[in-house]
């Protein structure tokens, strides 16, 4: 247990001299954003995710089979928007390829803009979100989360992918001492799962208690704070800002 706590503490407290510097904490904040936004999209936009594309592919299969409550068009719009966001995020990280802090900043600014636009749509339109409003929200949120995923992929902080927990949980089990692995890094991996759980739980509570805009507004506030931090980090010349060397 102390090992798990040490791993969690090392993930929560920035090590500015480490290989990833403050990036783990930023990735945890983005994981909370994922939970908040997917809670909104799934509960209010009709069984569709804007961050979890595996879920949308599965939902598309359900819709094709005629299962009630699922929309092939909604899943398709989310997928297309996500890919468009990933292209945009990929462009941003390649423009700033020599500095990981700037990569993060550019993507955060873009994501914040798209989610802020979604908040405006919810406020102006009011609920329930149907028709063109529904698809506009799916598109805006999908693009924003696509940008986020492109950033997370480029920054490549171990075990902190911001949306994909399947591999994180698999690694925790497969790398454990029980499986004769090198060590599960359970502290970091549990923090990742817990961050998404917290975001999803808070988002669902807000929606179920009649505050549908609150999950998105909370996500925008988190992103704005992260962007402010990233603006400072973008000026750093610490070792963690240098691109990762890949084979």
TrEMBL record:
Keyword Mitochondrion: no
TM spans (from-to): 26-50, 70-93, 105-126, 132-151, 190-208, 214-234
Keyword Transmembrane: yes
Keywords, in A-Z order: Membrane, Transmembrane, Transmembrane helix
Matches recorded under Pfam families: DUF1275
PANTHER family reported in the protein's UniProt record: SLR0142 PROTEIN, UPF0700 TRANSMEMBRANE PROTEIN YOAK
Protein name: DUF1275 domain-containing protein
Natural source organism: Streptomyces halstedii
């Amino acid at each position: 247990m102390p090992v798990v706590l040490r791993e969690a503490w090392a993930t929560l407290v920035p090590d500015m001299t480490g290989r990833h510097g403050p990036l783990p904490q930023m990735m945890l904040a983005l994981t909370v954003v994922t939970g908040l936004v997917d809670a909104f999209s799934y509960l209010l936009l009709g069984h569709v995710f804007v961050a979890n594309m595996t879920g949308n592919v599965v939902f598309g299969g359900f819709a094709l089979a005629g299962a009630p409550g699922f929309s092939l068009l909604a899943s398709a719009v989310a997928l297309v928007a996500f890919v468009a966001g990933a292209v945009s995020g990929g462009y941003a990280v390649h423009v700033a390829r020599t500095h990981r802090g700037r990569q993060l900043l550019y993507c955060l600014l873009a994501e914040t803009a798209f989610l802020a636009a979604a908040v405006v749509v919810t406020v102006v339109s009011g609920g329930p979100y149907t028709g063109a409003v529904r698809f506009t929200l799916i598109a805006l949120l999908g693009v924003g989360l696509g940008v986020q995923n492109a950033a997370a992929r480029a920054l490549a902080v171990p075990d902190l992918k911001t949306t994909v927990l399947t591999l994180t949980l698999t690694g925790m089990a497969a790398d454990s001492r029980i499986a004769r692995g090198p060590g599960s890094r359970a502290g970091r991996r549990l923090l990742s799962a817990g961050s998404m759980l917290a975001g999803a739980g808070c988002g669902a509570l807000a929606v179920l208690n009649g505050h549908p805009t609150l999950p998105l507004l909370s996500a925008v506030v988190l992103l704005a704070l992260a962007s402010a931090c990233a603006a400072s980090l973008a000026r750093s010349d610490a070792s963690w800002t240098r691109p990762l060397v890949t084979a």
